[in-house]
Amino acid sequence: MKAIRIILAALRQGDETYDLLSENDRVIVGVSGGKDSLLLVYALHLYRKFAHKNFEMRPVMLDLGFPGFDPSVAQAFVASLGMELLIRPATDVYPILKAQQGPNKHLPCSICSRMKKAAINKVAHELGYSKVAFAHHADDAIETLLMNEIFGGRLATFAPKMHLERSDITFIRPFIHVREADIIRAVKELNIPVTPSPCPSDGATTREDMKNLINDIYRRYPTSKANFLTMLSNYEQADLWFDEINYQLPGTGLSMRPVTSAYDGMVAAYMRQEVFVIGQNVPLELEFDGSDADAHSFLLMKGGQAIGTIRYLVDEPHHYHIGRVAIKETYRGQGYGTLMMRWLHDYLYARDNPLTIVIHAQAHLRKFYENLGYVVEGDEFMEAGIRHYKMRAELK
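RE: above sequence
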């Protein structure tokens, strides 16, 4: 079977599983000039007819300022498909990467990735497109998982689909079920011209080490290749320790439990509805505005019962936003809110310091937060019909 048929079948599987492409979508397709992104342009071009989906696509290439950047080959290929490759300048990326490199052997890939996303996000906004498609494939996802486990101590990889609330842009990865070996074969069969990466670190990064390590595992244990990909979506058999965590607050009989289960999520949501929606007339759609998807929430437990809840969001490295701080009415005035806040400060500080925490504090609680080290920034403002202050604490 020709590789492109395998690619299109995997693309359809990813689309149908994760709802990636919808009728009348306007999609920016990120193009680097490499095999993955050029094949993605070609595959999506075919997929519109193959899947009978009417979506608009616009290939975009960023000039990141790398020496030797030459878009001409990619431009010609995209033109052969009846489209124009839009070149947008983002030439400040390379100098920043060089400045951040320091004594390290390689340019910092994570910073490059963030800056590229921000740059193409800007292009999408300017052109009025709501989705951005990247060519990350199944093997990229597995490599990212392994890198996060080894170097970050966390079980995480990129998502097939991710909506950014603040920018109102959705990132999609249509190749999420596509294997790199099939991409390589398809590019050869279709004779797609590939431009070598101008990045001086290409082929000599930690990701390349992960690729070699995983390929060695595949050779030793052939069934692992399919199982590693299945694992990423096998929610029915996921069994880790998250639901067992209860961080003790010594000498208090209290504990803090991360909200990781559907049940605990409902408990936290009910408490917030009781405190804010019913108790303070906060509109339901403002209290549950979709931001919980990116938040980390906790329950304050006493004798097996949840008596409080709190959450935080990561705005950027070293910058956090604490919110949705609630204590059940019958337990207020007993210092539980202070204990919960101080515990979360210590929890975050142990993982990332120095750090800055911002909170939108209800005006009548200003003194409470000042006692915890927060300082008012700016004037009083209204939020959800309640007077608030923006307050900031620096933990060093």
